[in-house]
Amino acid sequence: MRYGANVLHHPARPVTELTPDIDQLLTDMVQTMYAAPGIGLAAPQVGVPLRIFVIDLSIGRDPHGLITMINPEFVERDGMQLEEEGCLSVPGFEATVVRPQRAVVKGLDREWNPVQLEGTGLLARAFQHEMDHLDGTLFVDRLRGIKRDLIVRKIKKLAKAGKW
Ligand code: NI
Fold first, then answer.
1. Integer angstrom CA distances of residue 147 from 8, 55, 125, 140
2. How many whole angstroms from 84 Cα to the centroid of ligand 1?
3. Residue 128's pLDDT is what?
4. Does residue 77 belong to any structural domain of this protein?
5. Is residue 1 one of the residues assigned to a domain?
6. How much is the pTM?
């Protein structure tokens, strides 16, 4: 799903129980993330309006690198970082986005066990980026003024030409 698709611009629903469908969705999401390749993916990006994301900063190289979060919530966020950021749903565009330097997130893992993880730097950025997806927010929405207008205008142009 790309910028403009309805599912990406509305808040996603909590997952109520772990079903075989959810398990299959998680498998598909991890595959999609690795194939892209990307370091994170949220369920709305594959067209499913549920509060699930996966992150793997190693993109599959580290066997312990995969993070699965179902119904995640922020526990703490502090600091600030400014880095270039992109998104699989906004291919071809990057921009500097303000993010917390540190973030603690809690949720459920793939076995429905409670997990709490702390991230700094890139992981904190990924947590915030994927949490934003679950709230219907893309990095483009975090930009202001001319920067945002420029990207939105280019996307509209591509869409009009059937290239989006
Ligand atoms: Ni994204």
1. 20, 27, 20, 9
2. 13
3. 98
4. yes
5. no
6. 0.96
